[in-house]
Amino acid sequence: MGKKLIKVMDTSFRDGFQSVYGARVFVEDFLPALKSAVDAGIRHFEVAGGARFQSPIFYCNENAFETMDKIRAAVGPDVNLQSLARGVNVVGLDSQPRDMINLHAKMFKKHGVTTVRNFDALNDVNNLIYSGQCIKDNGLNHEVTITMMELPIGCEGAHDVAFYEKVLRNILDSGLPFDSLAFKDASGTSNPRKVYETIKMAREILGSDAHIRFHSHETAGTALAAYLAALDGGADGIDLSMKPVSGGTAQPDIVSMWHALKGTEYDLGIDIEKILETEEIFKDCMKDYFLPPEALAVNPMIIQSPLPGGALTANTQMLRDNNLMDKYPEVVAAMKEVVEKGGFGTSVTPVSQFYFQQAFNNVMFGKWNKIAEGYGKMVLGYFGKTPCEPDAEIVKIASEQLGLQPTTETVVDLNDKDETKGIAAATKMLQDAGLEVNDENIFIAGACKEKGILFLQGKATVGVRKNEKQAEAPVAAGSSEGSNAYTVTVNGKKYAVAFEGEKATVNGKLFDFSVKEGIEAKAAATGEGTPIKAALPGNVLKVLVEEGDTIAEGDVIAVVEAMKMETEIKSPVSGTVNSVEIEVGNKVQAGQVLVTVG
Questions:
Q1: CB–CB of 502/550 below 8 Å?
Q2: 480 & 552 share domain
Q3: How far apart are CA 455 and CA 66, in angstroms?
Q4: 240 and 139, same structural domain?
Q5: What are phi and psi of 144, to 5 degrees?
Q6: Quick one: 126 and 182 in the same domain?
């Protein structure tokens, strides 16, 4: 009897990128590795959706739809290209109305996607029904997904085999059409025995013909064991990655899995020599990218505070950007309580981000003194029903701080009534900004809001950690021998950059950051008045006042984005605006003066 052929999806170019680089990778840099992987015989890749929609726009100054087109052109017409969708959130942190959910499926089909893996972090099947139907109606394969994790030590109430069976039966009872079923463990914390029993349960319910996949991360150090358990339980597909984006916070390596299956009844059906050659090409493609040390690590703390690989490095990149990396251990430690009191939604985007944001706020502002909007809306029911009831006291605090009452209304029904969401609202944003109205731009505006508009206006900033040291780079006039000279590549264009103290010369143009850090930052206010300062570092999304405006105490004067949270800056006093020290697009630091009020 021959070996069972296990179907492999290569996640290097989506989940691998998200888990290791926070998805901040320029498309042209990795196309040679992708083409080599196709030549090596791989026919199924995850390449789009999730953070690989937002990050190209937010950090790479690349249109995500154009990157998808380039990927399809590189692999040819017959390769299965898969994307990741978050149910009613599609590819954003916020949930969407029906028209945007359908536009998501339409646009991803248009731009080369074949299959959509569709999940809901709360495992609320109501959030999968309409999104899944749209995926099928637009001609895509639908991989419906149950999200998994291990509860923090000492907790119980969800995320056992009985819970996953209930979710699966809810999917079947709903009549939701799907082509395959995936179990997705974004934090890599599910213990292997539970994985075995869960897959075995699903196989018994669905029968021998159903395609069942398992997905995990090596963050907790048990993914290879969990994959072996999944195969023994009856899974016939697994997700693997390649160096340099495998292991640690990412998926197990294809080569490692191939080695682990020696002498078993399973075969990955790959040419291992060609895969090894591809990994060398891939490592060369990525050699100039900053590789966060935590991305390579196995971290047992994650078992206690489940943080997905994709969220882990995305958040540590943001902490580095804002000079707050020293807070990382405290934030991770604070997650246990946040997860427990939040109702045990699976720690996968967007809920993993809500958990991290709330843990971050608890560390920075004191426990529960500042409810993160996403976390608060989750416990109040605005993203669906959590697996367990959230802590009643936290629900009360969230309701008071956000000014919202708890709800049990279906998410898509809520969003359909929200005039700030949907195609009409996105169209108005484009028109107000003087931008072309087309389906792609509508979706970017609707999914990415103000940051999407800034990108479409050509005002996006690049936040890719890619510096190529160039010893022979010309030192700018006026620089000393001790200056640091680099060639920095952005969107394929090289810039000669030289640093001297708090000054930088870029292609001969001098920038002075000695006053304060930021993009075209102005000098801090020195006149009379009350200075309103930034409580946290971040990027300015909106400036809502001008010099001479009369404002009241509590009025919002600006909106600053940090850690994927939009924070309203409110005036502590009434008076007249003496000066405005920021512009949209500025990067501000904690304690920096934003506005003065006289």
A1: no
A2: no
A3: 14
A4: yes
A5: -75, 145
A6: yes
Q: Which residues contact 107 (CB under 8 A, 6 or more apart)?
A: 65, 439, 440, 443
Distance CA 559, CA 495 (A): 31
More confident residue, 366 or 292: 366
- Please state whether 422 falls in left (phi above 0), alpha (psi between -120 and 50) or beta: left
- What string of DSSP letters covers 122-160? T--THHHHHHHHHHHHTT-EEEEEEE--PPPTT--SSSS
Q: What is the mean pLDDT of residues 282-298?
A: 90
Number of folded domains that form the chain = 3
Q: Average pLDDT, whole number, for the chain?
A: 88
Can you read off the two tokens belonging to residue 227?
């994959």
Cα-only R_g, the chain = 24
Question: Rounded to a whole number, what is the distance in angstroms from the first to the last CA of the chain?
Answer: 84
Give whichever of 157-161, 313-317, 327-331, 543-547 has the largest mean pLDDT: 157-161
What are φ and ψ of residue 180, in 5° steps? -155, 165
Do 198 and 247 fall into the same domain? yes
CATH number at residue 583: 2.40.50.100
The answer on pLDDT for 253 being more than 90 is yes
Measure the CA dihedral 67/70/71/74, to 10°.
Answer: -160
* Position 167 confidence tier, pLDDT thresholds 50, 70, 90: very high
Query: DSSP for 501-549?
Result: TTEEEETTEEEE-SS-SSTTPPPPP-SSSEEEE-SS-EEEEEE---TT-
Residue % of the chain over a pLDDT of 90 = 66
CA neighbor of 445 nearest in space, from 149, 78, 114, 107: 107
Residues 272, 485: Cα–Cα separation, whole Å: 41
One domain for residues 536 and 473: no
Residue count of the chain, please give it: 598
Q: Which residues pair with 489 in a beta bridge?
A: 494
Answer yes or no: are the C-beta atoms of 19 and 291 closer than 8 Å.
no
- Give the sign of the dihedral formed by CA 289, CA 290, CA 292, CA 298: positive
- From start to end of 15-138, where are the E strands? 44-49, 80-85, 115-118
Query: Can you say whether the dihedral through the CA atoms of 359, 361, 366, 367 is positive or negative?
Result: negative
By CB atoms closer than 10 A (0-12, 13-18, 19+), residue 416 is middle
- Same domain as 508, residue 536: no
Supply the range of the domain harboring residue 490: 468-512
Q: What is the pLDDT of residue 509?
A: 45
Tokens read off for 148: 């998994």
Model-level pTM? 0.83
The residues that bridge with 543 in the sheet, in sequence order, are: 558
Q: For residues 220 and 135, state if they share a domain.
A: yes
Residue of 398, 400, 361 lying closest to 380 (CA atoms): 398
